[in-house]
Amino acid sequence: EMCIRDRTQTGGTITIPNNQTYVIPEGHTFSGNVRFNKNGLLRVCGTATVSNIYENYSQSNIIVTSTGVWTSTNQLKLEEANSDFTNYGTVTASSFQAQGEFYNYGTTTISGGFTLDLKAKIYNHSTITMGGNCNVNQGGNLYNYCTMNVGGSSTNNGVLYNYGGFFVTGTIHFKYGANHNVGSGSFTTAGATEIRGIVKGPISGDY
Hints:
- About 0% of the residues lie in helices and about 55% in strands.
- An 11-stranded parallel beta sheet has the order 1-3-5-7-10-13-16-19-22-25-28, with no helix packed on it. The chain has a 10-stranded parallel beta sheet with strand order 2-4-6-8-11-14-17-20-23-26, with no helix packed on it. The chain has a 7-stranded parallel beta sheet with strand order 9-12-15-18-21-24-27, with no helix packed on it.
- It starts with a strand and ends in a 7-residue tail after the last strand.
- The chain has no helices and 28 strands.
- The chain has strands at about 1-5, 10-15, 20-25, 30-35, 40-45, 45-55, 60-65, 70, 75-80, 85, 90-95, 95-100, 100-105, 105-110, 115, 120-125, 125-130, 135, 140-145, 145-150, 155, 160, 165-170, 170-175, 180, 185-190, 190-195, 200.
- It is mainly beta.
């Protein structure tokens, strides 16, 4: 792959050309914006503090490695349905909104709300913690295989698969047309529960 390793740019806007990879190396710090062109990839091995992601109707591909640290000073927003963000390190943001795909294998902390829109798919294999509400809108899909902590309420108008621990401080709402699927040995806890949709689980086993 065409790869740009840049230790000189510490601010401003990173522009990633078509079909190329831009690497923020380990030990390097960048603070600014990221602009993607078609099939561009950003690999964060160091520290990235990002204000805005500009996708320009092109998919954004972001990988935060195990040594990487990503901080969104504004909302972490994946606007394009074919965009994907994979975290093996540490991600923090004030809020989160996606139409694309987000894969979490590290630690993700959202101080505010967490919203999945049409076509969004979230795969959590580690820990996601949010201080606000978790909203899975119609057409959104949330797959939890480990731990999700919701500081506010959770509203599901889409599809939620819980095979780990889904812990909600406030009320969890299963709306009309929504599907909540639980696996054996999983936990779903909430301060209160409203069920108007479908909740499915195995015939036998604890959940």
